[in-house]
Specification:
elongated, single chain, alpha+beta, 4-stranded antiparallel β-sheet
Length: 437
Amino acid sequence: MSRYETYKPSCIDWIGNVPEHWETVRIKNVASIVNGSTPSSSVEEYWDGDIIWATPGDFNKYEKIIDDSESKITEAGYKSCGTSLVPVGSVVITTRAPIGNVLIAGKELCTNQGCKTLVPNRIESRFLYYIISISSIELNVLGQGTTFLELSKESLGTFKLPLPDFDEQLAIANYLDHQTQKIDCLIANKKAQAEKLKELRQIEINNAVTKGLNPNAEMKDSGIEWLGKIPKHWEVKRLKNILIEKMMYGANEIADDDNENNPRYIRITDFGSNGELRDDTFKSLPMEVAKDYLLREGDILFARSGATVGKTFQFKNYSGIACFAGYLIKARANNQIITSDFLFYFTQSNAYENWKNSIFSKATIENIGADKYQLLKLCVPNSIEEQNEITEYLIKRTTAIDQLIKNIEAQIEKLQELRKIKIYEAVTGKIKVNRYE
């Protein structure tokens, strides 16, 4: 696309030069800024009404337009607090935890104090939306606070934007609607491909650890509803009967030491999505405290509560010494009966997931302690050799699938970056956008 004939400094560092005829304005000069608020949570009559009440938690559920919210308030709730209804077309932005997520109101709504709403007067809603969508880094710089960053009404109001005339804003918004829709469609297709590969990975694991690798093997009923049929020569065993020692809880110590010469203190927050330990969360314990909780190669850690309950981690190929925290439970496999690899893969299966759900259905709190974990029933090949064959197969298959997923995720990142570039070039005048049909 072509460029404008002449440019001038915008006086905005991250934007640089803009077309000669564009203005530089502050948000408060082109939009009214409306704060949000929260009705008292202890007053029942304030909640479960018909008024949309958006919070930062709602933003991940919508792409561009927000027209609903997880929580809604009543007329009484609305009148009880300092929130305000804003019209369709208003631009809603998160101003704490995190700063800079942005959506356009598809219906009349109000927000909590984690959001502020920009009601445009001399700026086109979509143009404002697009420029805010690429400004999160700059907006975060304006955030203040020690516990968490928050963007004040005053700071948001002083934020500078480049501004063409209204017809040009409209043309740019139409152009970006078309361009981002094309890119978003490609991203959605890539995400769907990645999800299918993840499903395939799950199927491969589940079939291998519950059915084996021989499709012609004679089967028998396991006697367990969530496990189904298993190979005839396999046995069903409880977890407590395939461990070399009792399951053990970790240390109840505060994670405030980062001395790399001490044993690493592994917590549930250290588990990366790829099954490896995160480097950015390293904490340690002095050896005199850690000595009773040291891990050995192949130990399996089970999360016992919280959002990650049931998640497992295999301590494997770690170059240093490590211990583990109290919200984790250690299981040490008896290698005469079951390999650590086979046990770990079983905990990645749909069968294990079904077992977890059966536990949760009988409890009001999602918590699985050692008393419940030790009763977990697994189907185990009698032969260590067969277990090794299965895990070697799974390592090859999951590694190949993981690489395909990684490649797709890299493609998605490039598309997302392209999307940002398209928006940046258009809303800052780096390219000239004619009226878009």
